[in-house]
Each structure stands twice: as C-alpha cells, then as structure tokens.
Write a structure and sequence with these properties.
- Helices cover 18% and strands 26% of the residues.
- By secondary structure, it is α+β, with helices and mostly antiparallel strands.
- An eight-stranded antiparallel barrel has the order 1-2-7-5-6-4-3-8.
- Strand 3 and strand 4 form a beta hairpin.
- The mean pLDDT is 87.
Length: 187
C-alpha cells in the first residue's frame, strides 16, 4: 500500500533538498512525480528557468543517452482539484517551498516541475495545473542558491532539440543530479 506522504531526497550541484510529496494533496501529480523519480528521470536535469519566484526543471536534455527516447511520448496527466493541503495551505495559492507541475492549459502536466523559492506578491497557484504536490522540508537555502543569472533565456524547445549540447551554452546552470524516495526513518 502506498503511503499518503513520501519523502524524496534530491541531490543538486548546490546541495541536498528534501521534499515531502503528498498524494492526499494531488493524487495525479504526486504519482507522476514519484514515478519519474523511480525511473531516474531527474538525473542530470538542468534548472533551466529561475525567475523571481520559481525554479523550473524537468526538460529532457539527454538525446545522446537515449533518455529522450525513453521518455518521449509521455502522456499528460489530468489536473488535480484545488487543495487546502489538509488545512496546511490556502486553495489556489502556492508558498515558498511548494513543489508543483508546470503546465500550459487544462490537463497539460507531464514532466516539468517547479519549486517556489520566493513568492513575494506574485499570485501563483491559481491555475488548474499549479496544484501543489509537495513541500520542501530541508534545503530552502539550496534552492535560493541555484544560479538564476540566465533568468528565462534558456529556450525549452532548443533543450528538446539539442540536449546537453545546447545547455553547454549556459555554463553556470545548476543541475538536479538525482532524486530518490527515502524511508522516513532514515531521514
């Protein structure tokens, strides 16, 4: 039987981030994220977008290793209903440390996710695809230190087309090295 909350350890080029992933907040999103973690999807993935409030990753960039082929054709998942996180959050509003899928319309979530690292006054979380799937419990300092000097200039289409060769044009990018589900008693 699957746990309602799974703990995931993500090692980055800046340090470790621990995330609690909540099936009870967003069943479809949590299941997809955990499935991607189990399949090694986030190994060597660049943090390609960092603006004033989010850090986005998940664009497959390894066509030469076969990872693009392995994960191409991944179906999108349905949107999860808005949640109040069991009373821990406000519906339609994300917070610093929230983890959610990126999307671009109804039922458009697939493999790109983002952390909120500094919400400020940005009203994020109101779109159907922005339902939180988890929360950072350790490593907010790591997130804040992810390089953000490229802002939104890294082109996702070029990541898909050219893979790592394109990302070499951005030598200061930080990377998600690996993510693993860990047992709570080990943390």
């Amino acid at each position: 039987m699957a746990l309602e909350v799974e703990t995931v350890s993500c090692r980055t080029t800046k340090g470790e981030i621990i995330v609690e992933v909540h099936r009870d907040w967003a069943k479809h999103g949590a299941e997809r994220f955990l499935h991607l973690v189990q399949r090694g999807y986030f190994e060597g993935i660049g943090f390609f977008r960092k603006n004033h409030w989010i850090i986005q990753f998940g664009a497959v960039q390894h066509p030469q290793t076969g990872k693009r082929k392995k994960f191409s054709g991944m179906k999108t998942i349905p949107d999860d209903p808005p949640t109040d996180c069991g009373g821990e959050c406000t519906k339609n509003r994300l917070w610093d440390g929230a983890l959610a899928f990126a999307g671009g319309g109804k039922d458009s979530r697939s493999d790109q996710v983002f952390f909120v690292h500094h919400l400020g006054h940005q009203p994020i979380g109101g779109e159907l695809w922005e339902t939180p799937i988890g929360n950072v419990t350790h490593g907010m300092d790591v997130l804040k230190n992810i390089y953000g000097g490229y802002g939104e200039s890294v082109n996702q289409v070029k990541i898909f087309q050219r893979g790592d060769d394109y990302l070499k044009e951005f030598p200061l990018l930080d990377y998600m090295l690996e993510c693993n589900i860990i047992q709570k008693d080990l943390w």
